Amino acid sequence: MNAFLESQAASHDAMAIFQPLLQVQRVSLEYRTAQRVVRATHEVSFEVDPGDRFVLLGPSGCGKSTLLKAVAGFIRPHDGEIRLDGQTVREPGPDRIVVFQEFDQLPPWKTVKQNVIFPLLATGSLKRREAEQRALHYLNKVGLAGFADAYPHTLSGGMKARVAIARALAMQPKILLMDEPFAALDALTRRKMQEELLELWQEVKFTLLFVTHSIEEALVVGNRILLLSPHPGRVRAEINSHSFDLHSSGDTSFQRTAQRIHRLLFEEQTDGVTSNVATPSAVAPDISAAVEPAVDSQNKARRA
Ligand SMILES: Nc1ncnc2c1ncn2[C@@H]1O[C@H](COP(=O)(O)OP(=O)(O)OP(=O)(O)O)[C@@H](O)[C@H]1O
């Protein structure tokens, strides 16, 4: 290859490296019912880079789940555009797998292994033998290799959550979408699942878009958090939370950031909207947290 072509290829590679994986650009989402039009989000923009653990956080009804569904391709934006790897999202695809809170999404008549294998075969991406190997590989990663032949009703809530995660990761999606996946679990199991999710991320380095209304969970799970205002959701701020993990929840900086987020979310409540954002049990009185006022300026700065 001559020098010109080499430099062209190098600059193309550099662009590919620095292009965000997911671009949500001024996206407004609406539901149309027989009686009225409900605007769920208004001109929301954010970008997710490969390997990010990006959290959508906001009060009930601010459109977090609707945004996730739009990224999954189940809902088309009324305005704006969603791009994955540079391609406009128009429909669901195997490059975006959703894990919901309801783990009864696992068909009860299939064993754990069959549950993981089924989508691999349904999309035609693998032959049965390869699908079986892939399923066992990911079941092993979530510590369930010994339960491959068990049926879902014999598993605990946490184990069902692990099967759902293994099934999603086995598809090797470009981005894993999780909608309050641990909300139905008891506090101890929820914490354990957060820990396991972070360990899995360390191993597999998948890209995650995670919805929660718990400030503490957002700070633990995410490396970046997008705060949304009450209904209809608008971008309130983006917060860099990469320095926190499960062991930092007692730290002063963690508590200060939690307090800052709490204020940012509650400042929006001048219209009497009630928030159900869950706050940590203890918070420090004041803050100087790494809160960025606008997502666009932060994204530019990150890539500069
Ligand atoms: N199928 C639907 N038809 C009409 N309106 C809907 C529908 N689904 C959601 N909405 C409305 O869209 C808005 C956003 O809902 P969404 O479920 O995305 O919020 P959320 O932030 O995920 O809330 P929560 O944390 O309570 O799950 C709400 O006002 C909700 O009432």
Automatic annotation (TrEMBL):
SMART domains: AAA. CDD domains: ABC_NrtD_SsuB_transporters. It holds the Pfam family ABC_tran. Residues 22-255 form the ABC transporter domain. Belongs to the ABC transporter superfamily. This is NitT/TauT family transport system ATP-binding protein. The keyword Cytoplasm does not apply. One of its GO terms (molecular function) is ATP hydrolysis activity. Keywords: ATP-binding, Nucleotide-binding, Transport. The keyword 4Fe-4S does not apply.
